[in-house]
Structure of Pentacotripeptide-repeat region of PRORP domain-containing protein:
Amino acid sequence: MFRLPRLIRPPLHRAAVFLRLASSLATFSSKPANPRSNSVSAATTDAIVGLVAADGRSLEADLDRLDPVLSHPLVSATLRALTDRGVPAARFFDWLALSRGFSPNAHAHNLLVENAGRLADYPAMSRALASMSARRIPLTERSFAFLNSSQGSPNDTAIAILRTLDEVGGPCRSAGVFSLVKALASIGEFDAAMSVIQDTARGARYYNALMAVKCKAGDFHGAREVFDEMRRSGSGPNANSWNFLLGCLLKNGRVAEACELVEAMERSESNDIPNSLTYEILAYHACRAGRMDSAMQILEQMSLEKMTPRITIHTAFIKGYLYTGRIEDACRYVSDMSTRDRYSVNRNYSLLAKLLCKAGRIVEAGRILYELMEREGLLPDRSAYVRVIKDLHKIGKGDLAIKLKLISQKLSVHAESVR
């Protein structure tokens, strides 16, 4: 049976005190990505919507004469606009299917289902779902985004959707039930979501979808209620169910309860509870609290169990060491991981170099990239390389910058020669 060893428990309990005091510590964060500019022509979208809304007998010929340059962004924008205006999109979608050289993507098919749902046109929804099922196009919760603005009660609307899914059958039925549960949970309609689960598929993944939403909102009590209902139904819980609860407790600083939960997981009769993700959750939160030695013990146990940590754990360790001022340990960590997890070598070194630059440790950043290229024979991420080179020149360390450029050129030439 796969169990968390005893060596992990003492660090966990000692970490409780530090995690309770960790509220004053800054958490790791990253800058949000800049939103991409929308290149879709609003004029073209408006022209198409106007023609479709008129619903003339010559709609298809009118669209042919308009001859828009079809693209997935244009089609998505048009379908969303039609839905917002309450205009059926089926004829437009049928015309798309006849357009040579263009095939609507999965997102467009889901938007078509949403359009039919917003209009409560379940025959149209049935046709759209049947088309998706025949093409094995994945159905997502986007199809049911209209639930938030549905005129009927969420429960009545869910029943109508389930009836339609049952009529269509095929791959869309099981995917549709799961997506419906997620969509209902996302708008806070947990009673309706639970009814769907109880009427259709009492599986752990369906309950877990509800737990994920509640845990994300910090509602441990609500998540535990779903967990208990899952047990009563005989559908689980599985490792993910336990991990949702564990992550929620640790995220909200409830460490003593988290330790008790881990002990309960250890007593589980299932061989995959706890699993590798359990270790990662424990290590991640220990890093966030600055308890690096405890986190390292957990990582070592993962190694004994022959588990490879994901990149998110490496990031947590690197940031944790730097936050606590243990720069040498951060450098030692990326060096040690280069032999244990080859897939993360470039990412780890590059991240450390950028963070060192941000902390004003420019020379150390240069040395880290030099080690990556000289010892590991790997090129760093372009952004990390450019940042380090520029910062080295700024502080008058052009000699190190030149060394980095020379070895980078050498590796680039070698990479070209072996292609």
User: Anything to note?
Assistant: Confidence is low (pLDDT under 50) at residues 1-39.
